[in-house]
Design brief:
It is found in: Nucleus. With about 350 residues, the protein is an alpha/beta fold. The protein is built from eleven helices and seven strands. α10 (about 285-300) links the parallel β6 (about 265) and β7. Residues about 1-10 and about 345-350 have low confidence and may be disordered.
Length: about 350
């Protein structure tokens, strides 16, 4: 892969999102400020807006992590966001009615925008910054996890589905611009919903290979965005573990044969869980844990021809028990030796 320094674009602006992180930290990004709560309005959407804090609490209670072990994220600034979003789109978020439509919480339209910015959009900007920071960490440590992010319904010009900022797109664009040796990315989107946001953003970009496995019968039904998917798996409603895991393995193997990425961005939604009110699939907790293990094994497992850096974001999941499943999956990845505190060697060709 040719990725010489003179092939890189000139860096457009200064940012804190790619600052160096001390090696004493795990490549896990989290802040208690990720969690959203204001006047109880967050309860009007099925999304558990405190899920991220519960994941971290479960990991702490297991003895795997302490507060000082994780990376504190930096909020994405307007200048950072303009790497993807237009000024027109960002200005539209200054209207509470627009944000109410994106978050699918109608009463938000009645709130003064300064409250919406502070209580709702700032946590989402912080999670977006966390995904960008985790992208750089993945290239350095071999893996990274943002306990948050995965706003895969937001594209450069429009939000939706509780996704106001295109964190996956932004993280990849930061890597392409700023990290030598990173010029091809694969998005593995295993959330129950089609990832139409990043698909719209990369529909004409051959540097990005998108694999998307989703329930064909649910939101967003974005036919235009499907044109960006190079490995498309449309699931029947209430698909169960064995068939699901077989499809993920077969298609991810196929994708990695077709495309040799410098990094994988893994959108690990837990809305595939049986009983999820929006996902309408039937994957067990054990199936989700096996799925995450499978993705990491194919990217970084022993005996694989290449150790591909992987960034995992937690994305959707609309049941109270999903936080425990995410924590259990992370513990399993550690137990299987697929992730660890020690920096892993990252093989890239310059």
């Amino acid at each position: 892969m040719a990725a010489a320094a003179d092939d890189k674009k000139s860096i457009s602006h200064s940012t804190r999102l790619h600052e160096d992180i001390p090696p004493s930290k795990w490549p896990i990004v989290y802040s208690s400020d990720y969690n959203i709560g204001f006047l109880g309005l967050e309860k009007l959407h099925p999304f558990d807006s405190g899920k991220w804090g519960k994941v971290f609490r479960y990991l702490k209670e297991s003895g795997l992590l302490k507060d000082d072990d994780v990376v504190t994220p930096v909020e994405a600034t307007e200048e950072d966001l303009l790497m993807v979003h237009s000024s027109g789109y960002l200005n539209s978020l200054k209207w509470s009615m627009v944000v109410a439509g994106i978050t699918e919480v109608p009463p938000v339209a009645l709130l003064p925008n300064f409250i919406v910015q502070r209580k709702l959009l700032k946590p989402l900007r912080l999670q977006t910054g966390g995904t960008v920071m985790a992208g750089k960490l993945a290239t350095e440590r071999g893996w990274a996890l943002n306990i948050g992010g995965g706003f895969h319904h937001c594209s450069a010009e429009r939000g939706g589905g509780f996704c106001a900022y295109a964190d996956i797109t932004l993280s990849i664009k930061f890597l392409f611009e700023r990290i030598e040796g990173i010029s091809k990315a694969m998005i593995v989107d295993l959330d129950a919903h089609q990832g139409n946001g990043h698909e719209r953003d990369f529909i004409n970009d051959s540097r990005v290979y998108i694999m998307d496995v989703y329930n064909r019968y649910i939101y967003p039904h974005d036919s235009y965005a499907k044109g960006a998917i190079r490995c498309k798996v449309e699931l029947q409603a209430y698909t169960e573990d064995d068939h699901y895991l077989s499809l993920v393995r077969k298609n991810l193997d196929k994708a990695l044969e077709e495309f040799n990425p410098d990094i994988i961005v893994y959108n690990a939604g837990t809305d595939v869980l049986e009983g999820d009110p929006l996902g309408a699939l039937s994957i067990s907790p054990e199936g989700i844990i096996q799925r995450d293990q499978l993705v990491f094994e194919l990217a970084r497992g022993k005996g694989r021809p290449r150790q591909i850096p992987i960034l995992m974001v937690t994305s959707g999941g609309y049941q109270k028990r999903t936080a425990q499943i995410i924590a259990d999956s992370i513990k399993n990845l550690i137990a299987k030796g697929l992730i660890s505190h020690q920096a892993a060697s990252v093989e890239t060709e310059i």
